[in-house]
Design a protein that fits this description.
The chain has 234 residues and is of the alpha+beta class. The protein is built from 5 helices and 8 strands; from the N terminus they run E-H-H-E-E-E-H-H-H-E-E-E-E.
Length: 234
């Protein structure tokens, strides 16, 4: 489900197709003049430049609008361990923003164990050195094959974004760091990807994690990826 932020700018509507209907997505291409920060949020960007403050406020405005669709009153969206957003009890979610775009996705924890979303400008990574930093040799070979089939896609950026979404889905479930080389991502031209974990995916509750399924899309100058972890048996 998509939702327009109350009093906010026009809904972008580009991320929702990557997520199931049980997830509410609010996204926008413009910073909202109605966005504000609670005192605890203000402290997180006390030394930030105006541009950073505006995007920080807008993505939280999106989060509050998404939470409102579940009947949750407005409140601060603070940071938990490792910088991940802290969501109200019974909810899971993920935030993302880049130049000119902000998005929030939230769901009840009865319909998703975790969410991970990421957006990047649709352009190649800055250098081969960055690609080496974020990818495994086998992934780089796969990128070359994909580029031969679909040269219109910036596959290196899709891979980077997919790994960011995987980390955002992993972190709330494990409370641990996941490096770029700790998951092997397989991208497919049909807009899907899988991530096989190369480190133990132990969690405080539920079965061990072995991997993630995700979706990707490009459009309107963006690369977007999303991971939805189904509810887990305990």
């Amino acid at each position: 489900m998509t939702l327009l932020p109350a009093g906010g700018p026009a809904l972008a509507g580009v991320l929702a197709p990557l997520l199931p209907p049980s997830v509410t997505v609010v996204d926008t291409f413009e910073d909202s003049p109605d966005a504000f920060l609670y005192p605890g949020e203000e402290a997180l960007v006390a030394t930030a430049v105006d541009r950073r403050r505006a995007e920080f406020a807008t993505v939280r405005h999106c989060a509050r609008a998404a939470l409102a669709s579940f009947g949750i009153p407005p409140g601060p969206v603070l940071r938990g361990p490792r910088g991940a957003p802290r969501w109200p009890d019974g909810m899971v979610g993920s935030l993302t923003h880049c130049e000119g775009y902000r998005a929030a996705a939230v769901a009840r924890d009865s319909t998703a164990a975790s969410l991970g979303i990421d957006v990047e400008p649709d352009r190649p990574l800055r250098s081969e050195g960055v690609l080496n930093l974020v990818s495994l040799p086998g992934e780089q070979a796969a990128l070359r094959e994909l580029a031969a089939r679909r040269p219109d896609v910036n596959w290196d950026t899709v891979l980077f974004s997919a790994k960011e979404s995987v980390y955002k889905a992993w972190s709330p479930l494990t409370g641990r760091w996941l490096g770029f080389h700790d998951a092997r991502v397989t991208l497919r031209p049909d807009g899907t990807f899988t991530a096989a974990l190369l480190v133990p995916g132990t969690t405080p509750s539920g079965p061990p994690l072995t991997g993630f399924d995700g979706r990707w899309h490009t459009g309107r100058g963006l690369v977007l990826t999303a991971v939805t972890v189904p509810p887990r048996e305990r």
